[in-house]
Specification:
Mss4-like_sf, 1 helix, Metal Binding Protein, Guanine Nucleotide Exchange Factor, Chain A, 10 strands, 5-stranded antiparallel sheet, CENP-V-like, 3-stranded antiparallel sheet, CENP-V/GFA, mainly beta, 120 residues
Length: 120
């Protein structure tokens, strides 16, 4: 059964703010690739339609590397990576939400799936 709820989140300085509908009963992704390890990402994925950037579009900086298929977005002021964007294998736009940046979320007890992104 889906437990999709609406959450608010954003960067540390508050300039980038968004809301997102996300099911936190589904496993979050803890990836060991070079960027996820260094930035401490804990990711939930949603279709673009479930994500709404409320403020800070002009403050977002894009970083890409490797195959340049994922946009690693961060606030130009505080440097926090609160979400990213890319496409699913079938070409649909999606958002990767750093659940650590959602307001009022208690991470203990949330299901986490470890992904070996380092080997990709």
């Amino acid at each position: 059964m889906s437990e999709t709820k609406r959450y608010e989140g954003g960067c540390h300085c508050g300039q980038v703010r968004y809301d997102v509908s996300l099911d936190l009963s589904q496993p979050l992704v803890s990836c060991n690739c070079s960027i996820c390890i260094k930035t401490g990402m804990l990711l939930g994925f949603v279709p673009e339609a479930l994500f709404n950037l409320r403020s800070g579009a002009e403050r977002i900086t894009d970083y890409q590397f490797g195959k340049k298929s994922i946009h690693h977005l961060f606030c130009a002021t505080c440097g926090v990576r609160s979400f990213g964007k890319g496409t699913t294998p079938d070409g649909k736009e999606m958002r990767a939400i750093n659940v650590r940046c959602l307001d009022g979320i208690e991470l203990d007890g949330l299901p986490v799936m470890k992904v070996d992104g380092k080997s990709f």
